[in-house]
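tmp note - Cytidylate kinase
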Amino acid sequence: MEGSTALSTHTDEAAPGARPPQVRQPRLVIAVDGPSGSGKSSVCRAAATQLGAAYLDTGAMYRAATWYCLDQQVDLDDEDAVALAVEELPLTISTDPQHQTITVGQADISAEIREPRISEKVSEVATNRRARTLLVAAQRRIIDEAGFIVAEGRDITTVVAPDAQVRVLLTASAEARLRRRGAQLGGTQDAEALKRQVLERDKKDSTASNFTEAADGVAVLDSSDLTFEETVNSLIGRVEQAQGAGA
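out:
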């Protein structure tokens, strides 16, 4: 790929059995933003699988960049050093919703980027303006190449893909988000650790992007009192509505 990062992508075909879209459009982008623990990744992955779309977890890219900086012993307080590391980042990310792999060089770090030590440091990379610019450019290339894709993160609806046909802010109460992240981590984190990884991280990241309030034209999907299936179906319903409007 052209660009200032070493980013590359796998655009594997959707798995057999995935529901094909009702109307296949040349470009159909579903952009979903939201805070930590809102369920973005699991909901978007499930929706992409059912729709037969590609899937992009932009948060995984920031986590991979954080892992790389820590692995290379880059001082996260040195903005120039972090930006240089991201520029050189040899990242490969899969866009198959049923087979998510993230590699840096030859190392598969799909599991490692979900560790608490990454969660507690990722904001320091995500709020680095130069690093963010590099990653946003890479995300736009992935979206453009996929064409039909569910992309989720914190600034997808406003910065990365503001022209997406479906733009949703997926949110939930703080209590629900803490509970979900705790369950995701298998109960290994105490209450204070969860607050650092969820609420405090959101506070830090909000200095770089606004993902707590919906921008103009962005629909709000509050999953606090919805089951996982209801949340996925609600998102798919918005996509099908957009597909019908574009027919």
